Amino acid sequence: MQSEQKKEIVSVRDNIDAIDDQILELLKKRLSFAKEIGKLKDSEKRAKWDPLRERQIYDRLLRDNSQIFPEDALKSIFHEIITTCRLSQKKAVVAFLGPEATFSHLAGVEYFGHSADYKAMETIDDVFAEVEKGRTRYGIVPVENSIEGAVFSTLDCFMKYKVQICGEAQLEISHNLVCRSGNIEDIQTVASHSQPLAQCRQWLRKHLPSVPTLPVFSTGAAAQMAANNPNIGAIASSLAIKTYQLQVVVQGIEDYRGNTTRFLVIGKKSPSRSGLDRTSLLIGLMDRPGALNEILTVLSDEGINLAKIESRPIKGKRWKYLFFLDMLGHIEDEKIQRGCDLLKSLCSYYEWLGSYPQAESSPPDSPADS
Ligand SMILES: C=C(O[C@@H]1C=C(C(=O)O)C=C[C@H]1O)C(=O)O
């Protein structure tokens, strides 16, 4: 009986092998067609990245799948296939806040897949400078966290460097307390980036009340420190545990579940419209009563959905601010174009930071112990 079953497994596995061979042949064919399209685009001087076409592919596949193959898996399989095909037309190097295994690195790999090359930078400023100078094609930077709010150093870089936003990615962040031994008693200092330290504030106060915290450049840098010093604990990603051979002390120490960070992909030129886009502006208000109201009125009159507004002080100009505005839609959409033209005439400063495909939204955050 047992050997009958064994034979059946072998024969069904033959079927799987035959399918895998077909998938592989089809993948090779798909890659060569993508390269052919790349050459045609070269001759027409067209951008290689076509977000609208990519979105249409996902929509069609998800519809035809009728939820038979698990949807998230289907999306990530095709994401890897499509990014590989796209990058075969033009290679991309992506700068991120390093060292290896930071959340920015993870977000980069999620966004660009495994076919891109990644370059670790020491600071967010360095990521911007790298892209502005054209040394790397893209950069990925954290811009806001669903619990802690804006990442000010990123917003300030938009005021300093000439780059465009090309995309956004959202990464659900779960923090691990790690150290060399895996024993909480060995930890005399907890190092991490200031954002994760803030995102785990209540947990640290409750479980390590007398242990000081040490803000460092990145979670990767903290993990590196923990690897070099047995008395340093780090708050870091699961990728950092593997990369720096650390032991987990406690998993999931964030104060809120669903804690999500939004990242921006920066480059030299925003992509064309995908049909589900976001447009970011940086504006300065006229010094007159009702200036902000005028801006909001334009958006409301044009039926533009304002997704976010955030102000930042202008360095060296006391009590003067610039505003970051995110709207739903693409600058190629008539409504957004018209709204932006009106804003330009009403603002003391106006800069279009880019239009780019919207990231999928995730469920809302909830307290960790609910
Ligand atoms: C192959 C193309 O180039 C890129 C890759 C795509 C793909 O792999 O399906 C789709 C759109 C483009 O971003 C294309 O434009 O069709």
From TrEMBL:
<keyword id="KW-0584">Phenylalanine biosynthesis</keyword>
<dbReference type="GO" id="GO:0046417">
    <property type="term" value="P:chorismate metabolic process"/>
</dbReference>
<keyword id="KW-0963">Cytoplasm</keyword>
<dbReference type="InterPro" id="IPR036263">
    <property type="entry name" value="Chorismate_II_sf"/>
</dbReference>
<feature type="binding site">
    <location>
        <position position="89"/>
    </location>
    <ligand>
        <name>substrate</name>
    </ligand>
</feature>
<keyword id="KW-0057">Aromatic amino acid biosynthesis</keyword>
<comment type="pathway">
    <text>Amino-acid biosynthesis; L-phenylalanine biosynthesis; phenylpyruvate from prephenate: step 1/1.</text>
</comment>
<dbReference type="InterPro" id="IPR002701">
    <property type="entry name" value="CM_II_prokaryot"/>
</dbReference>
<comment type="pathway">
    <text>Metabolic intermediate biosynthesis; prephenate biosynthesis; prephenate from chorismate: step 1/1.</text>
</comment>
<dbReference type="GO" id="GO:0005737">
    <property type="term" value="C:cytoplasm"/>
</dbReference>
<dbReference type="GO" id="GO:0004106">
    <property type="term" value="F:chorismate mutase activity"/>
</dbReference>
<feature type="domain" description="Chorismate mutase">
    <location>
        <begin position="3"/>
        <end position="93"/>
    </location>
</feature>
<feature type="domain" description="ACT">
    <location>
        <begin position="280"/>
        <end position="357"/>
    </location>
</feature>
<feature type="binding site">
    <location>
        <position position="50"/>
    </location>
    <ligand>
        <name>substrate</name>
    </ligand>
</feature>
<dbReference type="Pfam" id="PF00800">
    <property type="entry name" value="PDT"/>
</dbReference>
<feature type="binding site">
    <location>
        <position position="30"/>
    </location>
    <ligand>
        <name>substrate</name>
    </ligand>
</feature>
<dbReference type="InterPro" id="IPR001086">
    <property type="entry name" value="Preph_deHydtase"/>
</dbReference>
<feature type="domain" description="Prephenate dehydratase">
    <location>
        <begin position="93"/>
        <end position="268"/>
    </location>
</feature>
<keyword id="KW-0413">Isomerase</keyword>
<comment type="function">
    <text>Catalyzes the Claisen rearrangement of chorismate to prephenate and the decarboxylation/dehydration of prephenate to phenylpyruvate.</text>
</comment>
<dbReference type="InterPro" id="IPR045865">
    <property type="entry name" value="ACT-like_dom_sf"/>
</dbReference>
<dbReference type="InterPro" id="IPR002912">
    <property type="entry name" value="ACT_dom"/>
</dbReference>
<feature type="binding site">
    <location>
        <position position="13"/>
    </location>
    <ligand>
        <name>substrate</name>
    </ligand>
</feature>
<dbReference type="Pfam" id="PF01817">
    <property type="entry name" value="CM_2"/>
</dbReference>
<feature type="binding site">
    <location>
        <position position="85"/>
    </location>
    <ligand>
        <name>substrate</name>
    </ligand>
</feature>
<protein>
    <recommendedName>
        <fullName>Bifunctional chorismate mutase/prephenate dehydratase</fullName>
        <ecNumber>4.2.1.51</ecNumber>
        <ecNumber>5.4.99.5</ecNumber>
    </recommendedName>
</protein>
<feature type="site" description="Essential for prephenate dehydratase activity">
    <location>
        <position position="261"/>
    </location>
</feature>
<keyword id="KW-0456">Lyase</keyword>
<feature type="binding site">
    <location>
        <position position="54"/>
    </location>
    <ligand>
        <name>substrate</name>
    </ligand>
</feature>
<keyword id="KW-0028">Amino-acid biosynthesis</keyword>
<dbReference type="Pfam" id="PF01842">
    <property type="entry name" value="ACT"/>
</dbReference>
<dbReference type="InterPro" id="IPR018528">
    <property type="entry name" value="Preph_deHydtase_CS"/>
</dbReference>
<dbReference type="GO" id="GO:0009094">
    <property type="term" value="P:L-phenylalanine biosynthetic process"/>
</dbReference>
<dbReference type="GO" id="GO:0004664">
    <property type="term" value="F:prephenate dehydratase activity"/>
</dbReference>
<dbReference type="InterPro" id="IPR008242">
    <property type="entry name" value="Chor_mutase/pphenate_deHydtase"/>
</dbReference>
<feature type="binding site">
    <location>
        <position position="41"/>
    </location>
    <ligand>
        <name>substrate</name>
    </ligand>
</feature>
<dbReference type="InterPro" id="IPR036979">
    <property type="entry name" value="CM_dom_sf"/>
</dbReference>
<keyword id="KW-0511">Multifunctional enzyme</keyword>
